[in-house]
Amino acid sequence: MLKVKNVTKYYGDFKAVDNLSFEVKPGEIFGLLGVNGAGKTTTFRMIMGLLDMTEGSITLDGNKIDYNVTDKIGFLTEERSLLTKLTVKEQCIYYGVLKGMKEEEIIKRTKELLEKFEIPEYFDKKIKELSKGNQQKVQFITAIINNPKLLILDEPFSGLDPFNVELFKKQIVEMSKNGSMIIFSSHRMEHVELFCKKLVVLLNGKSVLEGELKKIKEQYRKKNILIKGDIDIDKVKKIKGVLEVTNKADEYEVKIEDENIVDGVFKYVSKCSNVTKFSVEEPSLNEIFVAKVGESYEK
Known about the structure:
- This protein is an alpha/beta fold.
- Helix content is 33%, strand content 31%.
- It has two domains: 2-217, P-loop containing nucleotide triphosphate hydrolases (Rossmann fold); 221-281, Alpha-Beta Plaits, CATH 3.30.70.980.
- The strands form three sheets. It has a six-stranded mixed β-sheet with strand order 6-7-8-3-9-10. Strands 2-1-4-5 form a four-stranded antiparallel β-sheet, with helices on one face.
- The longest helix has 16 residues, at 162-177.
């Protein structure tokens, strides 16, 4: 288990992380979210032992994280960190050796992962000859070459098309099922919702929202009603407790203050013609994020 307990980090007088605590258990995919400058990268670096914390503690399976345990950690950075003049084989050997692996083991693992990501023919190609998407695949492969016990993913889907996002998702889920602890960070809230059952949202280095995603959504009073049919938007807007009505493609989204407003909206809609859908939905994580942080990352 990864335990981050009461961690604070100062850069001079600037407090980058403020009394942060969370746990990630084996098999969990945990979301660490926040706007740029919120403290995510500093937290990642402290977890990996690259930065010393000012206060608090970080342990992996009860042990302080140092060079004795970093071989069990994988990290995919948001920025590309590939040596572009190397071949894929040479790049993977370089990272694998740093993780204490033997060359024969690295080559076998590299070939297995290249097959999984459907680029086996790139084994001897130079990194600079690959597309951005395929470079991202290679970077991901180098992050998981050692079958890490703890995997940190910072914007893992950057530069990927939908088909390759699915390949990444499949591998991430497979690793969690095999017991890896995964910390997932993304500005795309719909990606976070696909994976993370638990999360922390940082603002100015401090947690402003944390817990199980399901409970966070249940506790957030505002709900959405999706309606298909012939309704008068102006009349719906006049219903007490209705915050906003938006026409989205072939349906309407009605934002309401809380569940108590549902009956009033339903009473009106039941009198309308051609109504084929009336569905009360939990808010999206992006809506909750915006409410807490004040900035949207939906693309």
